[in-house]
Each structure stands twice: as structure tokens, then as C-alpha cells.
């Protein structure tokens, strides 16, 4: 058995006394008031606290795992920095120049995040790093895309980056909600990374409350898009060819003044702020969103991914005109095959 003095953990006022070896302190002597409490604390044997002898070795056995998780969650880097993980081309930061950045908004039904999971698993994308930020709730878990025992023990955290160079596509997956009042700092650090990495464009997958639609939004498809002015010049014509419907602006003061229109995305989380900041900073960004309600939102995720695929053609079919139902079947096959492998 190992004996510790309970006085050493009492937290009394004498805990502030320095050890005898600390510089600029009186030398250790029998009459030294500065060192006496320290010696008494170390040598005290009254009221001992007994711990099993195997406990220190047990704690040491968990130390490497704890340090690994701690390094993942709190690396010695400034908040809001991309941290390469050493895959897909070495430990150096990969070159994302000219790539498309695809990411979700933490919004109603988590539709954007579910859609991103479909893209990563279907395209079998490689994890290339992490986006370290203090704006998200910290979390750690197992590999959600594990297909074998070899990669089932890998850890995943709240913001990870995946890449598919053949399609010049980078995906940022966000797995935890935002900390209160951290929307704007996250936007600033994210857009700074977008600029420094020289991404060609950013595509944000989001959602909005279906019950807060106005009369105009109740008509037609529940899918909408938004383009920043810089991206509108490049792909605006393509959106018209696809017969997509742009997100309508709502009255700033309904029933009082219907002439002043503002962008309103209830339940969209960071969507509006990130879009408006991208407009002001000249970043090419597209927002694809779906009106939905909380519940089983997997079907909404499939619809949103099919919507994205109409434009970016992430999965190309031999037939030039493929209906969204056929694409949904393709994603279902990939998704449930992946799920069955995990459960098996």
C-alpha cells in the first residue's frame, strides 16, 4: 500500500509556501518559518489516506492515451488553424489552391452535417487534417467512417478536414455545436483560412425551419440557393439552366413595412453571418439549403446531396440526364453498405 498525507491535499493557506529549493527564499534551517510548513506537509503522517498499490501503475497505463487525446483537443497552435495529420501526402500542409471547400452549417435537423457524411463516405475521402478552433464544443469519438478493424480505433474530433484531389474537393466536417457568442470569431478564422489556402469557392450546406416560411416560399421546391456577387458572375447562368430557385428575402417588419426586404434564415445557425461576411470580403460562396423540420432528417440529407450533385457532378452517371430518385438510390446503396460494415 502507498500512503499519502491528507494534509498535502488539504488546500489550506499554507499551501502557498514555496519549497526549500526555490530561488530567492531563505535557506533550509530548523528555525526557518518559510520552510517549516513545507517540511511538515511532506513529513506528516497523521490522518493518512491509503490508496491501492496498483493505482499508480494503472494511471500510468492510461497516460499515453490521455496525452494523445489532449494533443488532439488542445494542440499548441493558435485557434482557427488547419493542422495536417500526416496523411495523403506527408506531414506538410497540402496545397488546396483552386479547390472547392464544402462544409455544413450546424442548423435545424443537422441536415448539412448528415449530407457531408454522405459525401465523405460515398466518395471515400481521405482525412488530411483538423481545423483547430475554440469556437466549437470540444468532443472526441471513434472513427465514424471505419470499414475495418485497422481504422476502427482512430479518433475523431469536432472539426476535421477531408480531401479528394481527383475532384479538387476539400470537405470540412463539423460535429459539435457552437459555443455561445462564438459565431463571429469562427467566421473570421474560417474566412482567413479560405483566403490563405486560396480556395476557388466555398459551398455551405444548410437548412431552415419549414414552419417559418412565408407565402412565397411555400410554393414549389423546398430547396433554395444563395450566391455571393463574385460567384454570381461565374455560375449564375448555370443556376438558371438548372431552374434553381434563389432564397427569397423576407420583409424586415411584416405587416408594418413590407417594402424593406432582408435575408432571413431561421434555424440556419451560422449561415447568414458567414454568407454576408463572404459577400463583404469578396469570397466566392454558395449556400444550398432545404426547408425542413426536426425529426428523422436522413431523407432531407439525401435530397440536399442530390441538389448539390446536380451542380458539382460529384457522382457522374453514364446517362446524361439522371433523375434525383436514381441518384438517391445510389447514395442509399453506398450509405447503408457503409452502415452495415460498421454494425457488423
TrEMBL record:
Q: State the source organism's domain of life.
A: Eukaryota
- Is DNA-binding one of the keywords UniProt gives this record? no
**Molecular function per GO:** molecular adaptor activity
- State the compartments where it is located: Nucleus
> Which keywords does this chain's UniProt record carry?
Chaperone, Nucleus
Please list the GO biological process terms of this entry. Answer: chaperone-mediated protein complex assembly; mitotic spindle assembly checkpoint signaling; negative regulation of apoptotic process; proteasome assembly
Gene Ontology cellular component list? cytosol; nucleus; protein folding chaperone complex
What InterPro entries does this protein's entry cite? Proteasome_assmbl_chaperone_2, Proteasome_assmbl_chp_2_euk, PSMG2_sf
| Segments for region (Disordered) | 1-33
Q: Does the keyword Lipid biosynthesis apply?
A: no
> Its family?
Belongs to the PSMG2 family.
UniProt protein name: Proteasome assembly chaperone 2
Organism whose genome encodes this protein = Taeniopygia guttata (Zebra finch)
Q: What lineage is this protein's organism placed in?
A: Eukaryota, Metazoa, Chordata, Craniata, Vertebrata
Amino acid at each position: 500500500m502507498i500512503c499519502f498525507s491528507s494534509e498535502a491535499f488539504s488546500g489550506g493557506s499554507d499551501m502557498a509556501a514555496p519549497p526549500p529549493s526555490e530561488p530567492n527564499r531563505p535557506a533550509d534551517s530548523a528555525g526557518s518559518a518559510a520552510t517549516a510548513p513545507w517540511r511538515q506537509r511532506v513529513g506528516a503522517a497523521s490522518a493518512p489516506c491509503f490508496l491501492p498499490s496498483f493505482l499508480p501503475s494503472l494511471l500510468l497505463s492510461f497516460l499515453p492515451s490521455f496525452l494523445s487525446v489532449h494533443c488532439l483537443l488542445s494542440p499548441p497552435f493558435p485557434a482557427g488553424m488547419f493542422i495536417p495529420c500526416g496523411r495523403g501526402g506527408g506531414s506538410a500542409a497540402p496545397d488546396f489552391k483552386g479547390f472547392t471547400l464544402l462544409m455544413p452549417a450546424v442548423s435545424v435537423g443537422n441536415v448539412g452535417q448528415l449530407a457531408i457524411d454522405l459525401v465523405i463516405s460515398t466518395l471515400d475521402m481521405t482525412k488530411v487534417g483538423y481545423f483547430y478552433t475554440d469556437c466549437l464544443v470540444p468532443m472526441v469519438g471513434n472513427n465514424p467512417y471505419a470499414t475495418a478493424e485497422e481504422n476502427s480505433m482512430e479518433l475523431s474530433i469536432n472539426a476535421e478536414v477531408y480531401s479528394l484531389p481527383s475532384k479538387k474537393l476539400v470537405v470540412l466536417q463539423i460535429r459539435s455545436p457552437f459555443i455561445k457568442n462564438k459565431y463571429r470569431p469562427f467566421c473570421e478564422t474560417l474566412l482567413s483560412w479560405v483566403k490563405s489556402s486560396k480556395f476557388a469557392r466555398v459551398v455551405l450546406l444548410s437548412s431552415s425551419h419549414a414552419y417559418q416560411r412565408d407565402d412565397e416560399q411555400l410554393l414549389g421546391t423546398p430547396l433554395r440557393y444563395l450566391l455571393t456577387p463574385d460567384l454570381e458572375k461565374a455560375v449564375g447562368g448555370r443556376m438558371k439552366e438548372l431552374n434553381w430557385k434563389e432564397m427569397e428575402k423576407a420583409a424586415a417588419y411584416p405587416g408594418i413595412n413590407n417594402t424593406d426586404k432582408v435575408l432571413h434564415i431561421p434555424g440556419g445557425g451560422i449561415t447568414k453571418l458567414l454568407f454576408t461576411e463572404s459577400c463583404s470580403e469578396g469570397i466566392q460562396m454558395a449556400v444550398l439549403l432545404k426547408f425542413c423540420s426536426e425529426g428523422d432528417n436522413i431523407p432531407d440529407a439525401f435530397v440536399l446531396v442530390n441538389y448539390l450533385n446536380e451542380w458539382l457532378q460529384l457522382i457522374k452517371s453514364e446517362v446524361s440526364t439522371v433523375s434525383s430518385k436514381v441518384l438517391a438510390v445510389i447514395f442509399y446503396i453506398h450509405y447503408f453498405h457503409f452502415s452495415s460494415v460498421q454494425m457488423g
